Structure formats: structure tokens, C-alpha cells
Amino acid sequence: MNTPPCKGPAVPGNIFSPGWTSNFSEIKDQLKTGDIILVHGRYPFSWVVEFLQGSDYGHSAIVVRRSDLDPSNKFNLPAELLLWESNIEIPGSTPNLWRPSVPPKVKDGPMLISLEERLLYSQCHYEDVYIAVRPLFINRANIKFDNILPSFFDSLIDKKFPSESEIIHSVFLGRKYNRDSNNPLEAVSLNIADDIVNNKKIVLEDPSKNQLEAFTLKADTKSKDKIYCSELVAATYKELGILTQNHVSNAYAPGDFSDKGTIRLLKSGWLGSEMFIDMRK
Q1: Which of 49, 187, 193, 241 has the fewest CB atoms inside 10 Å of its own CB, making it the most exposed?
Q2: Which residues of 148-163 are buried (b: 16+ CB within 10 A; e: fewer)?
Q3: How far, in whole angstroms, is CA 193 from its chain's centroid?
Q4: Is 103 helix (H, G, I), strand (E, B) or coil?
Q5: For the range 213-221, what are the long-range contacts, defined as Cβ-Cβ under 8 Å and sequence gap of 24 or more?
């Protein structure tokens, strides 16, 4: 069976407000470590995050340049443009390149992968996909990526990706109570039946006071077994010192890093406007 040709991005727009799109080949040399990648589309788990935050985006990730992460090339990374993301295991997609098995394998949870291969795969294999980049503008001389990121990646690379219900519990716990937990299903009482989740309807029951401790930030992601996409983005920005420590990482969703988000960065940093890209060109 022949594989259908890769589709162009399904960027929203009309004659009065076109979905302006740039070719990946035109902008790839401009991408820098810390830039945000946002993905909209119909793929596993996308509806959960979009539903919870009311955003167009169900996935977020961070651009990493090999020359920033590994200037001496001691890790033998095969690509200059890399993507730091947490995702499900996607058979047939690009394998993890950070502390990889031999040979490198596809995994779930946090991973460092070829940016171009992953985003092209997403655009070609899922429905209703469009991809946006938000450049990070900041004084990079004050951020020692090669001193910070390797040990941070080491601390998270063996974690897994949560289930749909675990994401729902974790986001609800973070956004409403600013609280992290390694066992979010136990930390807050949410009634989520399988048939309700499958029909994209969620019933939330507020926990009683004795089920939740006071706000706590000390554990955050490093103590957790599982971590989802925007939680990883937030945790990475916090590790780099450009996002406040005042909120737990599971309080963030992909939409918070989009044009419609209201977060503000530290160190006089800011995110540029979304630019839609076509990975085929």
C-alpha cells in the first residue's frame, strides 16, 4: 500500500485573515535553544489538554541546539536541531538521543529527539495538524545551557508519560491548588469514568480540605514518576531561571506558552509571536 503524500499544515484562516505560513527551510537556522514549539492536531492525548485549557494547542516542546547543549560534542548527538519534549511512545517515529540505548529506541516520557524528524512525522501522520514556533528573546550570555541542561536531562530522562486521567488530575491539581503530587489520583478526588473520558466529558469533584495539604512547591517534577509535555516545558524554563518558581510545573498547559497565554518571563526575557511552519519545505 502506498503512503499518501504528506499534507500541508491545516493552519486556520480565511481570505480576510490568512494563515500565513513559513517554510521550515527558511527559518530553521533562526531557531534557538529555548524557543517554544506548539502543535495542534488530532493525535493521541491532544483533546485532553485542549479541553482542559480551552486552547488550540495540545502539545508543547522546546528547541535545543546541539552547539548550546554540547559544544565539545562529547555526547555524539547526530543532529544540530533537537527537540526536548515529553510524549507518548510513537512507533515509527524518531528515537530518543539522550543517554540512548544501543541502538537508540523510541520511548515515552521526556526525550531528546531530532526536531525535524519529529515535527515532519507529526504533520504527515496526524490529522488537522499545524505547528507554531515562538522564539525566546533573552540575553543568552547569562544562561549557561551546557552547564544546566545535561544534568537536568539526566534527572528526567527515565520518567514516563502519564495516562489521560493522570494528566487531567495533575493539571486540575496544579491549576486550582498550585500543588504537585506523585500520586495525583490519590491527592484529589476526581470522578472520571472511562466512558466519560472517552466521550470527552469530565466530572470534577472538589476535594475535601483534609485531602489536600497547604500549597507546596518543594517537590515539583523531579520527585514524580511521570511528566506531561507542558509540565516539562515549565520545569525546564524554571531550571534555566527564566520562569518563576512560584507555581508548580503541572499548573501550566501548552496554551500558556501560546500567543494567548499570560505568563511573563524573568531575566527580561519574552516570547515572540507565533509563526506557523510547513515542515515539508
Answers
A1: 193
A2: ebbebbeebbebbbbb
A3: 26
A4: coil
A5: 213/179, 215/177, 215/178, 215/179, 216/179, 216/180, 217/178, 217/180, 217/245, 217/246, 217/247, 217/248, 219/180, 219/181, 219/182, 220/180, 220/248, 220/249, 221/156, 221/180, 221/249, 221/250
Whole-structure pTM value: 0.88
Provide the phi-psi class of 54: left if phi over 0, else alpha when psi is between -120 and 50, else beta.
Answer: left
Q: Is the dihedral of CA 242, 181, 161, 250 positive or negative?
A: negative
